Recover the amino acids of this structure.
């Protein structure tokens, strides 16, 4: 990598919710194009985008630097006598006591200790944010100056951003700066200079340079970047107005005033700080000191990962159960639903002879040894044992919740689903109730020797059991070591139209009309065109300033509508706020707050890490999905009702999978309230696919999903099924003869993620690891 | 007597620029020093977007001036600071 004259050390992504307007990968890619060799991500009180940046940085030719911009409360006793707009007699936005004020500090991670301290600080900053009534309204995160001083090790502190006033938002007063100097030392503190092209930049930077001289520390230049490219600058303005629940017209004092917060080329930034060349050089020097690598230095371990006896115990558990499940005494066994090749009628009571039992047992034993070999090679025995332990915990919880006399007492506490059902180890340890041998399920997607992240095991529970189980997991492993996974709801067409339309001051009735016309899978750009009565889809926003004429009954032509179209398109897919994953939990041997900040969730007794499932997977976190499934609750309710009404105890494992009357009802789309096939889209599709077996139903459930819809697989599949019904000799076309075995069950179309892997392996010679990488990339 | 009137309205100015758009002369007056420069970009969502590069400068006669370059129209204006 060539030398860059300037490194950006202060940059916000869209994970500075409703402030930053670009994703970390957009920032990384643009930084690489502009010739940067490194880029620091410093989102507001958050590292939610850090792992994303760490993952893409190398491919973009840059080194990821990590940090955050934190809000620090400086109490009146700690200070300086300087008056600011924040925290004067009463501060309704922060709730700080009179006289206290909130300042921004930019913290950069130098090493692993620094990462730990940053995570702990951010955890502290958010700890009080759900203390309001009902925990629904999230308060503003902040930490005390004393907390920052106590967590200074391994961190570099920059004195914070400029804002639009001569005072700025950072710590720019000498007494407070000296307290930071005491904690961070001259090598850990820099006075931050910014040039946002505001009126008082020069005066402020001269004063800050004088402050740095008095403190004996260096100045460093930074850009306070909020967008990766010029075409996102307006969206940043709109986000500010949205965050403050006002309009663009009314938000001038809150906005940045201009668009200089876009990532600029290193040479342009050096020119911007022509009066402070030393501060520009310092950005490069400092970046060199920041050697923490999030992909390497996190130090996470899950319980059992280092247990030398784990493999032996797992093998013993599985081999004992192998005999129970597949041994000679099993006259008939349940098969469950397999996605392909499964015999839908298997559950109707097929009795196997002694020879057949021996053959199946032999096949199962061979499969078990193959899986145990892979698990041993990957060092995942502890992973499976931990899941097994959790399931046992769930069993205890289920017994408590259901009560000893309940007809539900005999039911399993939960159900495994997803790719883990292809594993015989999961089947034998009770994590899945699907027999992978009977259903001829391939292991590749779930487990292969090239696996780079931990496999996923999804467990569904009735809601009442899950509600008790999640806090019980917190208790079992400790609040410091267990937390839920975060999720980031993203802007979609309707939400973007509604929120940005309001920000633009457009008429509420018109906004709602356009939003309601929006389709989920289409872009906002298309929807607004349609709603405005413009027949043809435009190729872009063009010149929003010019406005456009509406059709009959369309809203009047206005540049604001054109801007809505453009802003909604730009916002599409950006994270809107931090939320909670439905049930993903991470568990750690060391305190999680040393690995990732943990913040309170909206529900009492729950907390979550600041990373979503993808970042958790990239971090190697063991994520366990404890999902609540309402239909499972409903089924259990039915079992109880039947018992009380008819005195019958229903054994769900003995329900046949080929009941003709049931399939007739399914083909009539008489499926209101039937799990997975009750939606309007499913019901419409059922009348066309006319499923005759559980395998057909499995495909049916899968086709009404975004992947096959966007991939154009639905119509070809339905057409071919119809042709086959009319003419059993019909030859299904395949893109290539090599793909016939892979795509036969779905009539030449790619419906399942497993097929993406198998196509890549069969057609392009990918290894299981490469194929899984492709699948993961496609599904993100 | 008419009603209210706007104060501090910009007046057109004749400006000769140097490299980087820096004003060299304003209405024939030589510029000695640039004290500050800032940028305003606003109202882009309306039919009348506003993009102005402001310069706070001092003439050779020691007089403080504020001028701006309207980046939409290309015209220069002076305005009291």
């Amino acid at each position: 990598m060539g030398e860059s004259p300037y490194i950006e050390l202060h940059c916000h992504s869209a994970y500075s919710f409703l402030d930053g307007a670009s994703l970390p990968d957009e920032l990384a890619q643009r930084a690489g194009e502009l010739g940067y060799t490194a880029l620091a991500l410093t989102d507001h009180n958050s590292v939610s985008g850090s792992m994303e940046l760490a993952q893409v940085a190398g491919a973009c030719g840059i080194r990821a630097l990590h940090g955050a911009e934190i809000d620090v409360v400086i109490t009146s006793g700690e200070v300086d006598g300087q008056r600011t707009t924040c925290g004067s007699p009463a501060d309704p936005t922060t709730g700080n006591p009179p006289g206290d004020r909130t300042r921004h500090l930019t913290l950069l991670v130098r090493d692993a200790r620094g990462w730990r301290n940053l995570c702990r600080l951010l955890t502290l900053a958010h700890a009080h944010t759900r203390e309001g009534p009902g925990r629904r309204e999230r308060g503003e995160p902040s930490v005390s100056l004393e907390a920052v001083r106590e967590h200074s090790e391994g961190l570099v502190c920059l004195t914070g951003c400029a804002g639009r006033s001569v005072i700025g938002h950072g710590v720019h007063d000498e007494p407070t700066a000296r307290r930071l100097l005491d904690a961070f030392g001259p090598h850990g503190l820099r006075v931050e200079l910014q040039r946002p092209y505001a009126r008082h930049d020069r005066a402020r930077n001269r004063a800050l340079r004088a402050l740095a001289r008095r403190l004996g520390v260096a100045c460093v230049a930074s850009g306070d970047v909020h967008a990766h490219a010029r075409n996102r600058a307006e969206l940043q303005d709109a986000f500010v107005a949205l965050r403050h629940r006002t309009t663009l017209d009314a938000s001038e004092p809150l906005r940045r005033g201009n668009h200089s917060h876009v990532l600029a080329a290193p040479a342009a930034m050096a020119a911007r700080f022509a009066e402070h060349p030393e501060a520009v050089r310092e950005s490069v020097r400092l970046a060199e000191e920041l050697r923490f690598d999030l992909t390497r230095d996190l130090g996470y371990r899950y319980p059992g990962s280092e247990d030398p006896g784990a493999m032996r115990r797992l093998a013993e558990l599985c081999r004992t159960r192998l005999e129970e499940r597949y041994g000679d005494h099993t006259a008939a066994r349940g098969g469950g639903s397999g996605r392909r090749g499964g015999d839908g009628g298997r559950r109707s009571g097929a009795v196997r002879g002694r020879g057949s039992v021996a053959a199946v047992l032999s096949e199962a034993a061979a499969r078990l040894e193959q899986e145990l070999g892979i698990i041993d090679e990957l060092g995942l025995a502890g992973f499976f044992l931990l899941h097994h332990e959790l399931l046992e915990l769930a069993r205890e919880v289920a017994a408590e919740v259901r009560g000893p006399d309940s007809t539900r007492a005999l039911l399993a506490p939960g159900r495994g689903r997803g790719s883990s059902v292809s594993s015989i180890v999961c089947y034998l340890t009770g994590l899945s109730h699907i027999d992978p041998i009977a259903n001829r399920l391939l292991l590749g997607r779930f487990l292969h020797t090239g696996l780079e992240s931990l496999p996923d095991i999804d467990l569904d529970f009735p809601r009442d059991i899950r509600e008790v189980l999640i806090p019980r997991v917190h208790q079992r492993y400790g609040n410091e070591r267990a937390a839920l996974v975060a999720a980031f709801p993203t802007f979609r067409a309707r939400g973007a139209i509604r929120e940005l339309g309001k920000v633009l001051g457009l008429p509420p009735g018109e906004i709602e009309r356009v939003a309601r016309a929006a389709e989920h899978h289409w872009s906002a750009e298309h929807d607004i065109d349609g709603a405005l009565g413009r027949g043809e889809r435009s190729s872009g926003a063009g010149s929003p300033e010019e406005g456009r004429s509406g059709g009959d009954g369309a809203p009047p032509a206005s540049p604001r509508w054109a801007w809505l179209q453009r802003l909604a398109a730009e916002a599409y897919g950006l994270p809107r706020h931090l939320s909670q994953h439905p049930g993903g939990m991470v568990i750690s041997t060391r305190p999680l707050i040393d690995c990732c900040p943990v913040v309170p969730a909206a529900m009492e007794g729950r907390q979550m890490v600041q990373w979503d499932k993808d970042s958790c997977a990239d971090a190697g976190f063991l994520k366990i999905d404890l999902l609540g499934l309402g239909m499972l609750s409903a089924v259990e309710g039915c079992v109880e009702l039947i018992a009380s009404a008819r005195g019958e105890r229903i054994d769900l494992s003995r329900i046949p999978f080929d009941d003709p009357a049931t399939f007739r009802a399914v083909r009539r789309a008489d499926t209101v309230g039937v799990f997975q096939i009750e939606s309007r889209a499913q019901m419409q599709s059922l009348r066309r696919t006319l499923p005759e077996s559980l395998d057909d139903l499995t495909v049916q459930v899968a086709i009404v999903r975004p992947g096959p819809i966007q991939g154009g697989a639905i119509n070809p599949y339905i057409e071919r099924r119809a042709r086959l019904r009319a003419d059993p000799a019909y030859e299904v076309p395949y893109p290539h003869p090599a793909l016939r075995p892979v795509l036969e069950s779905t009539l030449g179309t790619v419906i399942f993620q497993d097929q993406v892997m198998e196509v890549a392996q069969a057609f392009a010679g990918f290894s299981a690891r490469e194929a899984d990488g492709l699948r993961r990339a496609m599904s993100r | 007597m008419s009603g209210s009137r706007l104060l501090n309205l910009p007046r057109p100015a004749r400006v000769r620029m140097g490299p980087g758009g820096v004003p060299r002369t304003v209405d024939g007056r030589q510029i000695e020093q640039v004290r500050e420069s800032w940028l305003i970009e606003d109202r882009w969502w309306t039919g009348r977007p506003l993009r102005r590069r402001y310069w706070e400068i001092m003439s050779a006669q020691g007089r403080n001036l504020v001028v701006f370059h309207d980046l939409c129209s290309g015209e220069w204006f002076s305005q009291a600071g």
